Amino acid sequence: MKNKSYIGISFIVLLFGIWTVKELRERYNKNELDVLGNVPSFSLIDQNNKKITNEDYKGKVYVVEFFFSSCPSICPRMNQNMLKLQDAFYGNLDFGIASITIDPENDTSAQLKQHAKDLGVKHPNWHFLTGDYNYIMNLANKGFNIYAGKNKNVAGGFEHSGLFALIDKEGKIRCRKDKFGNPILYYDGLEEAGIKAIKEDIKLLLEE
């Protein structure tokens, strides 16, 4: 009787152990990044005077920022942090960056090409994009819900967010959760913690 009981208990423990290991594997292998919705459609012109749309990024994991080349405040830091992402994923053609100017009157294709050269941009999927001012403002503020606008009272004449948007291979905006379980929506493009987080999540999306 004791032997039967021992065998029964051992079997239950074994099953529990197998179930626990399976649950842990699923939990840590599962990509738990939130889906915020589809990336807004866009069609703009890059630094090589080529039309680039959101469809050109299909099948790629990419990061979107809104900036302008003559920005005297946060843009240089944003661009430097984008360079860190470029270096981390250089050579991976499934990765890309879309840097969209909010000052298209100044940031022509030629100006953006020089800006990219000065930065040291070398990834073929890093596009600096320009177009119609109202179109871009609508894309930033309503499409992505990332603030940008003119303000004559600030240095450079424009103000904007320092946030980065992360897009997956299917064209969906993705993000991680904060410590309270709430989606962060976008990544801090100014601080090292934000760059570390988005780098980790780019790796996750590239493996999907």
TrEMBL record:
InterPro entries in the record: SCO1/SenC (IPR003782), Thioredoxin-like_sf (IPR036249), Thioredoxin_domain (IPR013766)
UniProt keyword list: Copper, Disulfide bond, Membrane, Metal-binding, Transmembrane, Transmembrane helix
Ranges that cross the membrane: 6-21
Pfam families, sorted: SCO1-SenC
Disulfide bond annotation, renumbered to this chain: C71-C75
One function term, GO molecular function aspect: metal ion binding
Location of the Thioredoxin domain: 33-200
Binding site for Cu cation: C71, C75, H160
Similarity field: Belongs to the SCO1/2 family.
Protein name in the entry: Probable cytochrome c oxidase biogenesis protein YpmQ
